[in-house]
Amino acid sequence: MKPVILIAAIDNDRGIGLRGSMPWKIPGEAKYTAQRTLRTSSPDMINALIMGRKTYESLPPHRRPLPGRHSLVITSRSIGEPVGVATSVDEALRVCGEMSDVESIFVFGGAEIYSQALAAALPDTLLISNIPGHYGCDTFLDPIPSTYRLERTSNHKHGTVMVRHETYVRDFGKE
Ligand SMILES: NC(=O)c1ccc[n+]([C@@H]2O[C@H](COP(=O)([O-])OP(=O)(O)OC[C@H]3O[C@@H](n4cnc5c(N)ncnc54)[C@H](OP(=O)(O)O)[C@@H]3O)[C@@H](O)[C@H]2O)c1
Q1: In CATH, what number is assigned to the domain containing residue 26?
Q2: Which residue's alpha carbon is at the smallest distance from atom 44 of ligand 1?
Q3: Domain that holds residue 98
Q4: Number of domains in the chain
Q5: Cα(20) to centroid of ligand 1, in Å?
Q6: Average pLDDT, 10 consecutive residues per value, the chain (175 residues)
Q7: Which of 20, 24, 47, 91 is the most buried (most CB within 10 A)?
């Protein structure tokens, strides 16, 4: 089984989005997300990103699909772009699981996709970046289920912003 990793950034209200976009612009944090999702153990391997249609469409047209990773967009419609689509989180995971060059599968958002993945305890690991402050978001990450336990934390300063990175792992004793 390939590792399934949920990656999300939240503010102090668990907010993740505002009017269909990211609520903050923190270049160092965007770079962290890119580096973490690009990293593989060998140059022959690549990671996959599974994301909801709204998150995919929130990316600038010239930046989608994001380079260096397989993208799979979850949608019930035809989106008319050269990117793989799936009709459910389960199907997206199955398709990525069958790709021989895919090392890890990242659950990339947004809220609907995070919610479905967390409700079914599909991710093995959660990478949560805590952005300090209240951004008046309209889209939120569900509370982290008790089936996950906090394994480690680290602090990263991006300019004047101190971001706390948390890593949660699924606790098999609680499943
Ligand atoms: N802070 C972060 O780390 C982070 C990360 C990612 C995204 N975001 C933000 O999150 C927001 C978007 O989140 P969102 O919850 O509104 O949208 P989303 O989860 O990105 O996409 C929702 C869409 O996904 C499709 N979908 C969801 N579940 C499905 C299912 N079971 N079967 C088939 N299709 C399904 C539907 O597309 P169709 O309508 O086409 O059927 C639905 O409209 C944006 O503001 C974005 O910037 C934040």
Answers
A1: 3.40.430.10
A2: 20
A3: 4-174
A4: 1
A5: 9
A6: 97 98 96 97 97 97 95 95 95 97 98 98 98 98 97 95 97 73
A7: 47
